[in-house]
Design goal:
Oligomer: single chain
Number of helices: 8
Distance between the termini: 95 Å
Helix content: 10-25%
Structural class: alpha+beta
Number of domains: 3
Number of strands: 26
Length: about 425
């Protein structure tokens, strides 16, 4: 009875290489015979488990590497690493000439007969070409303002003359609410001439220190300046005093600089005692000139008669356009109205990293042939070659947001890598 029970008990023991749980939860292995052995030491068992885990980990890594190789070979997009591949919020100030057609210095000035008489009483638009010519566009506008309405006809409307309306408009636009007059070098003036740059041309602002306005003196003019205006031969060039003023005056209209006699090349004439001609508001693209100073220094003889149709702004137009017919002895070129705009550009840089094993195949139908998609060129089997021409930027939903074109096709193969920087400005 006892012998039979012992034999049955032995048959239930694990064979060679089988694991069993012994007393106290200890895991052991069966010996080479059917006779039970003492479980292996705990250290040896742990070592075996670690070896098995290490083998399995290596298998997983090899599988992942193989999957990555296969994915790279057929990859159609790569997700950016937001930390290493994208640099955002990069800002820089970009300047460019204000005038159309890339003109740096405007020497030709034209008005248009398309402006109605009512419009011309308030302002005159100035073009870089004859308005009848294709490509002609408004570059800037000129107006005359008088705080008391002198120099223009109210046409029976009390306190509603064009000169009064213009002065009031720019006073509200540029001055603080408590100011009632434009002040030049500490002196108020009722008489102003306005040069207003076309808003679309100044981008964000006029670049301080980079505008030069030439004016020629006026020797004679009709009471109404839309008639005869005769200019002289003496040219005065005006700039802002940003190079000497330090921190500009800043008000509700932004920065304000003085307009003084000088040139871009030579700076302010007599900087210790400059001649003040007006104010420039670069953030608005507006120059306000003191009518009293233009009368005294350039012979403008502004019409300040009561209810008298003076159209004084046409006098300023002839002064600017007349300077373009004269030659600057310092440069041997005609005097030109020079100005630059300035714009702050915010950029994001995307670094597109194309590794050697990536993007070496194409889904273009010309890349393959036949119903099973065999390579059209046999050399592609071991050494495929493609040319990168375009980089597309997608969002997380894989919707195309932007396209960057390379200046020329970029050869790509297993032996070539590429780093393409895409700059997105906004």
């Amino acid at each position: 009875m006892d012998t039979k029970m012992n034999i049955q008990h032995l048959k239930k023991l694990p064979r060679v290489g089988q694991l069993f749980r012994g007393p106290g939860g200890v895991i052991g292995a069966a010996a080479a015979s059917d006779t039970p052995r003492i479980p292996a030491p705990q250290a040896n068992i742990s070592q075996q488990v670690e070896q098995l885990a290490q083998q399995r980990a290596e298998e997983i890594i090899r599988e992942q590497q193989q999957a990555q190789i296969l994915a790279r070979n057929g990859r159609t997009f790569t997700k950016f690493d937001a930390v290493n591949d994208i640099i955002d919020n990069q800002t820089e100030v970009v300047t460019a000439g204000v005038w159309s057609d890339g003109i740096a210095s405007l020497t030709a000035h034209f008005t248009s007969s398309a402006q109605t008489t009512s419009q011309r009483r308030y302002y005159v638009d100035v073009y870089q070409k004859d308005p009848a010519v294709t490509g002609s566009a408004v570059q800037y506008s000129i107006a005359y303002g008088n705080a008391t309405g002198l120099g223009s006809d109210s046409q029976g409307q009390l306190n509603d003359s064009p000169s009064r309306a213009v002065y009031s408009q720019y006073k509200q636009l540029l001055l603080e609410s408590a100011d009632t007059r434009f002040t030049f070098d500490g002196v108020d003036s009722n008489s102003i001439y306005v040069v207003n740059f076309k808003r679309s041309r100044i981008k964000e602002k006029i670049d301080p220190g980079n505008f030069e306005l030439p004016l020629v003196d006026i020797s004679a003019r009709d009471t109404n300046a839309t008639g005869s205006v005769t200019v002289g031969t003496t040219v005065y060039t005006l700039i802002d005093d940003s190079e000497n003023s330090g921190a500009p005056t800043v008000g509700s209209s932004g920065r304000v600089y003085n307009v003084v006699s000088g040139s871009i090349n030579d700076g302010i004439y007599n900087p210790s005692a400059p001649v003040y001609y007006g104010l420039v508001y670069p953030d608005y693209g507006t120059i306000i000139l003191n009518g009293d100073t233009l009368d005294n220094n350039l012979g403008f003889t502004t019409n300040t008669g009561s209810s008298s149709e003076g159209n004084n702004h046409f006098g300023l137009y002839h002064s600017i356009s007349g300077s373009g017919t004269l030659t600057n002895p310092a440069t041997s070129d005609p005097y030109g109205f020079q100005a630059r705009n300035a714009e702050t550009i915010t950029s994001t840089h995307y670094f597109v990293r194309v590794k050697n094993a990536e993007y070496n195949f194409s889904n273009n139908p010309s890349f393959t042939t036949g119903s099973v998609g065999e390579f059209r060129q046999s050399t592609f089997i071991g050494d495929p070659k493609t040319y990168i021409t375009t980089v597309g930027l997608y969002n997380d939903s894989r919707e195309l947001l932007a396209v960057a074109k390379l200046s020329r096709p970029l050869l790509k193969s297993f032996s070539r890598e590429a780093l393409i920087r895409v700059k997105l400005d906004f």
